[in-house]
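Entry type: protein chain
Record version: 2
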Amino acid sequence: MRLFEIILLVSLVVCAVSVAFTKGLLTSIVIFMSYSLIMCVIWVLLQSPDLAITEAAVGAGVTSILFFVTLKKIRAIRREDQDEQAKG
């Protein structure tokens, strides 16, 4: 069990550092989702299921969906700008 906890903590640190240094926005969002899921498992191991459910719902669920929608809107805006520049 101790080895599993160490693996979780190391992967949590790796996710935290890699999300800061990743260039791609989509990749950063996926790493953030994995960070939230790892935190969810850690909360379960700490015997705090209410925080685990909240972390899974808000961290990996709602926040990630909002990030995906925002990324889609940003790329849609950039495409519209490129189309207008090509016409103009």
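Comment: The radius of gyration is 17 Å.
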